[in-house]
């Protein structure tokens, strides 16, 4: 189901796939039909694969800092170095948790927290602005053992939205709070609160004025979500996603990032997903849950499941990317845009980062 113009890039460490469910013959047939149609409609995906030993790593974390038209000629050496350093900081924050026996849930939270505090990324400090010249932030987090989850949407005063999402999960009976209610809840549990202007940077203010003047958004104005997926020493999966949304969005607009099953999903033994891209399309496809369902029910590996699902997004006119961690620690970055800020670190000491399409 790939769009003819879509180009997919993959960095995959393949260890094991979920077993095929014997009672899913109808779904399998439908998936096979989708795959055959995609092969006939477009060229095969541009992929690069790394093979690893067939055993689960002690732990591993994968992150992204957003996907979009990220071209080498548009980034100076200094900017590229800054993004690379920021990705490494995020990876090390998550790795510190995992290497000390911590949970994958704490690890993904720690990893995205550093990006919320870094103005390079569209999350927390440095988030994009709404058409009303405000910041409305979204975040979600999920663990794979019981599929507990928490999310917030449209918060305006929480310094770190991912902490608010975690608090919803741990300190309430609910899964999602929005708007003033989410801010009030965050304040009631003692999270750091700030003025909305705390999130503003000159770069984001200038981007807003450009969009308002031209009435046109570039891919950079739509994408910028950050996220992480991880597996810990106990084999538990987790995922986290956080964003400022799209530049000049209408007041109250909610994208895919806080929606469990759209941008964030985790299920032990199956996969964990964090997505970034044009949120309206990712919501319509239910990207994160669809990928995991393809793995669990149709027996697809995480590469095929991700490519087929992003093919549906492309067919509707959207683009973006995902990071995926499989149930045995295999991982993939898959995107149909020109680039995606991304990286991985594991218990063997391997640390990799990449930005551009051909960086694998």
TrEMBL record:
Protein name (database record): Isoaspartyl peptidase
Active site per UniProt: 225 (nucleophile)
Gene Ontology molecular functions: hydrolase activity, acting on carbon-nitrogen (but not peptide) bonds, in linear amides; peptidase activity
Entry-linked SUPFAM superfamilies: N-terminal nucleophile aminohydrolases (Ntn hydrolases)
The entry's keywords: Autocatalytic cleavage, Hydrolase, Protease, Signal
PROSITE patterns linked to this entry: PROKAR_LIPOPROTEIN
Pfam families reported in the protein's UniProt record: Asparaginase_2 (PF01112)
Signal sequence interval, chain numbering: 1-18
GO BP terms, alphabetized: proteolysis
Superkingdom assignment: Bacteria
InterPro entries: Ntn_hydrolases_N, Peptidase_T2
Residues where substrate binds: 253-256, 276-279
Site (Cleavage): 224-225
Sequence segments annotated as region (Disordered): 29-52
Keyword Signal: yes
Upper taxonomic lineage: Bacteria, Pseudomonadati, Pseudomonadota, Alphaproteobacteria, Hyphomonadales
Species, as recorded: Henriciella barbarensis
């Amino acid at each position: 189901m790939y769009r003819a113009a879509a180009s997919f890039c993959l960095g995959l460490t393949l260890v094991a796939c979920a077993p095929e469910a014997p009672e899913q013959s109808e779904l399998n047939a439908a998936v096979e039909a989708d795959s055959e149609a995609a092969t006939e409609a477009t060229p095969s995906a541009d992929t690069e694969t790394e093979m690893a030993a067939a055993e689960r790593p002690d732990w591993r974390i994968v992150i992204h800092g957003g996907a979009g038209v990220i071209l080498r000629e548009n980034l100076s050496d200094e900017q590229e170095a800054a993004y690379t350093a920021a990705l490494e900081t995020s990876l090390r924050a998550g790795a510190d948790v995992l290497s000390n026996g911590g949970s994958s849930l704490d690890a993904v939270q720690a990893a995205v927290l550093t990006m919320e505090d870094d103005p390079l990324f569209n999350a927390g400090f440095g988030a994009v602005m709404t058409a009303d010249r405000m910041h409305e932030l979204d975040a979600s987090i999920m663990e794979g053992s019981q599929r507990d989850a928490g999310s917030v949407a449209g918060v305006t005063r929480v310094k770190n939205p991912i902490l608010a999402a975690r608090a919803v999960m741990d300190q309430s009976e609910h899964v999602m709070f929005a708007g003033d209610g989410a801010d009030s809840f965050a304040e009631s549990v003692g999270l750091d609160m700030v003025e909305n202007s705390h999130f503003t940077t000159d770069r984001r203010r200038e981007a807003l004025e450009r969009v308002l003047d031209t009435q046109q958004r570039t891919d950079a104005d739509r994408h910028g979500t950050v996220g992480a997926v991880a597996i810990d020493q106990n084999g538990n999966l987790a995922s986290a996603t956080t964003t400022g949304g799209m530049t000049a969005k209408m007041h109250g607009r909610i994208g895919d990032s806080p929606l469990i099953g759209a941008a964030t999903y985790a299920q032990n033994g199956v996969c964990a997903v964090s997505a970034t891209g044009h949120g309206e399309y990712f919501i319509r496809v239910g990207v994160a849950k669809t990928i995991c369902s393809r793995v669990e029910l149709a027996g697809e590996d995480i590469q095929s499941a991700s490519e087929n699902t992003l093919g549906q997004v492309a067919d509707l006119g959207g683009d973006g990317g995902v990071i995926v961690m499989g149930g045995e620690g295999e991982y993939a970055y898959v995107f149909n845009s020109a680039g995606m800020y991304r990286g991985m670190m594991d218990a063997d000491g391997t640390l990799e980062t990449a930005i551009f399409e051909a960086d694998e």
